[in-house]
Amino acid sequence: MQVSLVCSDNHRGGGVTRTTEERLNQRNSNSPSLGTKNKFRAVAMVARSLGQLSVNIPSSSDQSIRTGMKYRNLGKSGLRVSCLGLGTWVTFGGQITDEMAEEIMTLAYENGINLFDTAEVYAAGKAEVVLGNIIKKKGWRRSTLVITTKIFWGGKAETERGLSRKHIIEETVRAMTHVINQGMAMYWGTSRWSSMEIMEAYSVARQFNLIPPICEQAEYHMFQREKVEVQLPELFHKIGVGAMTWSPLACGIISGKYDSGVPPYSRASLKGYQWMKDKILSEEGRRQQAKLKELQAIAERLGCTLPQLAIAWCLRNEGVSSVLLGASSTDQLMENLAAIQVLPKLSSSIVHEMDSILGNKPYSKKDYRS
């Protein structure tokens, strides 16, 4: 399994160190292959807030006001994150140059994003290094950033992967509590854990006076809904676990670029993404593309693009603290950020129309009883 933390330092390349005073103050206050996905249901993320965490809007607040960036609490914690975050999977250290990564991250920061997501497995660790180097070069105040990273697939050796000595939930909770108590993290959460596993982690924390997770990072888009819309809301009300979601465009499938097949230089054409290409060209993939054409008509009525509609659709879920974006260019990032302006246009009638097209709205047991 894997776990998420909110850490106080970035010890990777370009990371920054803290003074003893800062430590004391803080204490006091490639996606994996399909086969790997099947083997490891849970992916953990570590959220590192560089330096002392501030719940205030970042120093780019003037920009965030102009772009309409909104901030939400992560679950029932006091951690305030931008409703849109920037992910680095595939892009940083891989699909794009370091220079382009810096342009994208700078634009994101200047437009109010304070949440940046990475993982030790992304580009074999290079994504974390690129992220750390950019932060060091830009000289941004550490207290304005929340960095989430995921741990599990560290290296090839047996001792370089996993979460704990025994790789079981109790050991994981103890390990994350130790990390937080040592001042290396402020919070921890999970990613791709089942509701039962998250609940067990919470129970273990309460039983042994340890620190429970505050969020679950889950895939969420118009073609994958049940976990975020049915399971996580129950966990939020019971134990305060929030939702941080990724892949709002379903790895680009919802962007509309695949309506006529797989174009060159798209993600599905990259080495290692045959699984995605097969999915797009499958019968189910063709049905999804047909639904996207109907949704495109709604986007045109609202005066937005299909990706903006899809991202706004994710944001309209009040149980989602932050939606992680992926971008390979500044133009793409700016287009995605404009989804915030589309959110007010999603009336109940529009959402109902979209649900009718998608035909996959999940229902909880409570819905069935009513």
TrEMBL record:
According to the record, the residues making up region (Disordered) are 1-36
A GO-annotated cellular component: juxtaparanode region of axon
The record's subcellular locations are: Cytoplasm
Looking up SUPFAM superfamilies in the UniProt record yields: NAD(P)-linked oxidoreductase (SSF51430)
Q: Where is the composition biased (Polar residues)?
A: 26-36
- Gene Ontology terms for molecular function: oxidoreductase activity; potassium channel regulator activity; transmembrane transporter binding
Please state the protein's primary subcellular location.
cytoplasm
Under the heading Pfam families, the entry gives: Aldo_ket_red
Top-level taxonomic group: Eukaryota
Could you state one GO biological process linked to this protein? regulation of potassium ion transmembrane transport
Q: Does the keyword Transport apply?
A: yes
Domain (NADP-dependent oxidoreductase) spans 167-357
Instruction: Identify its protein family.
Output: Belongs to the shaker potassium channel beta subunit family.
PANTHER family with a match to the protein in the record: HYPERKINETIC, ISOFORM M, VOLTAGE-GATED POTASSIUM CHANNEL SUBUNIT BETA-2
Q: What is this protein called?
A: Voltage-gated potassium channel subunit beta-2 isoform X4
